[in-house]
Amino acid sequence: MSSNGATVPSGNSLELPPFSLEVQSLDLGPDIKSVGLELIDTESREPVQGGQAVEIWSAVTLALVADEPYVLDFFSHITRVAQFCSEHLIPFRMGGVRCVVLPSPNLEQLRELFARFAEESFGLRSGPAAKDPDADLEGDLSKRGLEAYKDAYRRYAFCAVCESADGWFTLLSDTLWSSEVIRRIRPAVQPFDVYLARPQ
What we know:
Blueprint: E1 7-9, E2 19-27, E3 33-41, H1 51-65, E4 70-74, H2 78-87, E5 93-94, E6 100-103, H3 107-116, E7 122-126, H4 135-144, E8 158-163, E9 168-172, H5 178-189, E10 194-198
Parallel strand pairs: 1-10, 2-10
Antiparallel strand pairs: 2-3, 3-9, 4-6, 4-7, 5-6, 7-8, 8-9
Helix pairs in contact: 1-3, 1-5
């Protein structure tokens, strides 16, 4: 059996852990560099959901941002998001017309957010630029949703589209390749029964 957090090509006939986190480069069009992370049940290949997904995605998020500043961007159901953050003492601010920005949630706060908003798509920005409000991007997020990241991600270490209900994180970055993503997240997934895979 492969060890937790091991990385071997997908399709291997060895007995594998119950969950797989597949990391691969994506083709989102010319001049857009992106990496996809897909968290699935190894046997059924269905998205992992529930408590296990919450724990894994929360740990992976902090591993990806490393020591860089980061924010989460919510652009739908913003009243519900703001109310939840107020009740759970999670700092937030309003950005643009319809964007709630959460600066650097800690691990416990990430768990709460991934659990409560598992069915929502939201965004993540990481890098020095995330320390300050980005009025242009936050205004664009209010109008275009996460499509706005395609025009802005080069200002950041990376931007990410988080769709945990579908088992997906999509990273947009000029500096993070699949190999670097795997290097960062391997220690984070070792406590879980997760197989790191590189589809071919």
